Amino acid sequence: MSTPADSAEATKPPDSPTTPATPGASTPSPEPPSPVPDDKDSMGSSVAFTATLVVLVGLALFGRRIFAGLFTDDGVRTWATMFVGVTVQAMPFLVLGVLLSAALTAFVPASFFARALPKHPALAVPVASASGVILPGCECASVPVSAALMNRGVTPAAAIAFLLSAPAINPVVLASTAVAFPGQPKVVVARAVTSLGVSMVLGWLWLLTGKGDSWLKLPNSRHAEGTGKLEVFRSSMLHDFLHAGGFLVIGAAAAATLNVVVPREWLDHVASTLLLSVVVLGLLAVLLAICSEADAFVAASLTQFSLTARLAFMVVGPIVDVKLIALQAGTFGPRFAVRFAPATFVVAILSSLLVGWWLL
User: Where in this protein does the record put region Disordered (predicted)?
Assistant: First the structure.
């Protein structure tokens, strides 16, 4: 014969805890375990990306010896020379920029910016734009940093201005531009003035629309709460270098191909028309998605085009390209990206034409 106690014991779940109950107190429900991120996929893609980068650079450096009997055409040798030259020149600046960007992400708290910026949004925009001069960061890193600023209370217009200025006018970018265009300081000045102006104009436009914040989805941090600073630095550096390094190789290969494969007459025709050349190189910057620390070397290799057109290439690339559009859509939402990217491209093209006419 069963008793009530036997019935209760029979209906108890087999894995339920058997802790004794305290009279008058409710038993707290166990907290779900914190999810552990699965890094297998990201590690595998990182290894594949690094291997591809090493293979491409190795082929460019030693391909002539390996395939000496198959490829003897002058065009192939010219392609390899241009590819290696652009990649080797740009790589030190890329590494330095990634290191500084990761250090900024890991060791400078976002609350610092909230305290440093003026309270009035219209005044915070130019201050945030100007801060890009002293705070280095590549475009990949500027998106999560801007997201962190918004989450810490910085007005979105100021965070957007910083997003656009930091990868375009920081010291590493300006130094690489000076090395890529030796003896032409006006190119460095033109790039800094144009990029600074674009960031401020778009920040103020975001304020004037009035609906901007409704198009914006405030994101979560890329790193979990409580992650150590050294781990944030390591993961940020690895992430940015793998992405930026791969795009640098692709950009160098595309620039070399453009100079070797595309007929000289066609390039001369495009380059002879100012507006067309500016738009074409602006679109090329969107498609190539080269890191801002390295794009000046690619621009310097496009000698068929005017300085104004190459200025547009260097201004557009760090603020709107295919990888940035994807990053912004994933971070801030597609409603933001479909409005922000076209507006950024148009303002950058018009600003490049204006500053190029004025300074170049």
Answer: 1-42
